[in-house]
Amino acid sequence: MPELPEVETVRRGLEPALVGARFSRVTLRRPNLRFAFPERFAERLEGRRVRELARRAKYLTAHLDSGETLVMHLGMSGRFDVALPDGRNLSPGDFYLEGALGTPKHDHVVMAMETGATITYNDVRRFGFMDLVPTDGLAASRHFAGMGIEPLSEALTGEAVARLFRHRITPLKSALLDQRLIAGLGNIYVCEALHRAGLHPEAPAGSLATGSGRPTPKARLLARVIRDVLTEAVAAGGSTLRDYAHTDGSAGAFQHAFRVYDRVGEPCSAPGCRGVIGRMVQAGRSTFYCAACQPAPARGVGTRRAALGAAT
DNA sequence: GATCCCCTGAGC
DNA sequence: GCTCAGGGGATC
Questions:
Q1: How far, in Å, is the CA of A264 from the C1' of nucleotide B12?
Q2: Where is the active site (predicted)?
Q3: What is the DSSP letter of A7?
Q4: Distance A65 CA to B12 C1' (A)
Q5: Owning domain of residue A66
Q6: Which of A127, A149, A162, A224 falls between 20 and 30 A from A205, CA-CA?
């Protein structure tokens, strides 16, 4: 379930236990997660040292001294637990929440480090995965080839939004979730960003570019609020709804700052707005929005004319 | 675009 | 029983 802020929070939690440390023993409790583990996965990790732990979009990449990179994706329910040798972060009472979520039943990978730290990967739904790819071919690998711009980088500007969305009649919600355009946004932060920008989720993406391909004021605003909401969420340690937890088992806090996500029926919090948060389904997934301050696009939405047209 | 898929569990 | 869930990919 983690989106970019949750993955970044996990990265920061893993960093002290992983970077500079060497794998001593890697145990797989099953042959696959979403995909099969690569050949000789454990042997290729054992004895190797981690030089750097980075994040790209919702992926974590651990660069090894073997010239390979461990690529990790948390899917919908993946989480890491870090137990340091001195007992810090060892909080099974927090990590193993009540019920089956987060129980040892779903501990699929256990990484024992030479430092004595133990890193456990737990994933109820098993939509996550791990892979090993040559570091010098990382950008061209199947995971990263064709991936869109990093939303927390300088690359995300109004100009970039206009360039990427120009001529697209796909709804803004879908365009923002398309990892080939901007990589790292998920359902929560797309809903939150569209609300902050006052943009209707069904407005055609192309309406953020002028006829000559320049960004509209809304394109610049959208780029800014995406950066804002992600930055605030990272600072809050991400959002905890169900499965997601920090590497010490504690929860994120940004869910308390949601303005629309999972708030159907509640009054809109935008200053002066008297709207009520509603829900619709787009591409099979819930969209939360305020019809009052995210006004529906003009008639003709979805037509080529509307997409190319004169978006305000 | 929408729809169904992977998988397990929670909530109704 | 049914629907829904921070992801992503395949298939019309």
A1: 17
A2: 2 (schiff-base intermediate with dna), 3 (proton donor), 58 (proton donor), 285 (proton donor)
A3: H
A4: 51
A5: 4-137
A6: A127
